[in-house]
Amino acid sequence: MALTDNQRAVLSFIQHYIAENDVSPKLQEIAEGIGIRSRGVAHRYVQALVDAGFLAIDRGRHRGIRLLKEHSHTPPHKDTMPLLGKIAAGSPIEAIPGEDEINLTDFFGKNNFAVRVQGDSMVDAGIYDGDIAIIEFRETANNGDIVVALIDEQEATLKRFKSTPHGRFIQLVPENRGMETMVYEASRVRIQGVLVGQLRKYT
Amino acid sequence: MALTDNQRAVLSFIQHYIAENDVSPKLQEIAEGIGIRSRGVAHRYVQALVDAGFLAIDRGRHRGIRLLKEHSHTPPHKDTMPLLGKIAAGSPIEAIPGEDEINLTDFFGKNNFAVRVQGDSMVDAGIYDGDIAIIEFRETANNGDIVVALIDEQEATLKRFKSTPHGRFIQLVPENRGMETMVYEASRVRIQGVLVGQLRKYT
DNA sequence: CATCATGTTCTCAATTTGTTCTCGTTAATG
DNA sequence: CATTAACGAGAACAAATTGAGAACATGATG
Lengths: 203, 203
Fold this sequence. Notes:
Two copies of one chain form a homodimer.
Chain A: H1 5-21, H2 27-34, H3 39-51, E1 55-57, E2 65-67, E3 81-84, E4 101-102, H4 104-108, E5 112-116, E6 132-137, E7 146-151, E8 155-163, E9 169-173, E10 182-185, E11 189-201
Antiparallel strand pairs in A: 1-2, 3-4, 5-6, 6-11, 7-8, 7-11, 8-9, 9-10
Helix pairs in contact in A: 1-3, 2-3
Chain B binds a DNA duplex through residues 4-6, 26-28, 36-41, 43-44, 47, 57, 59-64.
């Protein structure tokens, strides 16, 4: 039996909600999630999905919806990529399972976030406009690190970090011939993270 | 058995409290922690968590709650990273769950593999020795693509691809002033993949 | 021991949520 | 036109969940 558009929407909403929150949504939330106001209607959809075999419910229980099959549209989402040491000469490349699978957090570490780089101030370090910078949360940096620095609690910028001998001043050095080093009192600069990697995507 | 919203809140509060203070909270503190006033109610939640197997209590003892399983908030293994559009000025950066989580395969695509780049032949394209190149499996390329090419079934190399007008010859162009373009008969060159992205890790 | 703080058990009431209905609207179809 | 299906709103009810606080038992402490 085929599902109606709204039934599919509800199913999808529930799947995403559970993926995100580990618990099922309430009928009220489902209703809002698909843009209606009536709990009763939401219940009707859920019941239809139960009849169709996609869901089960603990009757009466709050948040009592359970997903049944991985009927879902999610093929067991693979999040890794094989890393080949050398491109095998001769034979067509084969991904040897378990060869060495890398993923984002294994490769760069855990306590990180990503930001899209805007501007050309670091081109000479190989960091281009549009690249994604991988930043580790940290509040301190060593001389020579490339950091995300917040200036006057206002402007965030990616620059190479240098501290003057007595630590009174901080230099933020662009890697771009043609741009000039900026110098601030240490109190005006707050380090938000240190560059640990970068991504680039060619389109 | 599934937990109710407040039961989860209490469990989370206890976990955090213990992580912070090394001892379990008293019922009064639990109550305040989740925004209620009644010790009795707090006790009811704790008892429910005991029944569900998350906690144990030394009956009567003050601060007598113990955590059981690492049922806790151990994320199985996170493979994504938050992508921040802009670094929020002012406040410390917070990872907003679901903000925009990227992972390797989402970002670069599916049918890919990774190779460590050896040599400096592409430095002027911003591809450095030691970078990881993300390659999409393909056997054909367009002029201007950066490809992994296998020459004489022997040597694999990363270069920019150009085909001569009639397709008889293939130029493999390094992006490095000081290195020269290589030209081969088309039959000697096999494309193994096209560069779609790259990673760099700073150590 | 005396006292207080804390844990435990209980009842009562309020609120939230799930469930079942009816009603009206719209669109498609014969 | 009559019929049917899908849809949305919302009322009404039952049950789950929640909150307050009294009363008592027991641990902690000087």
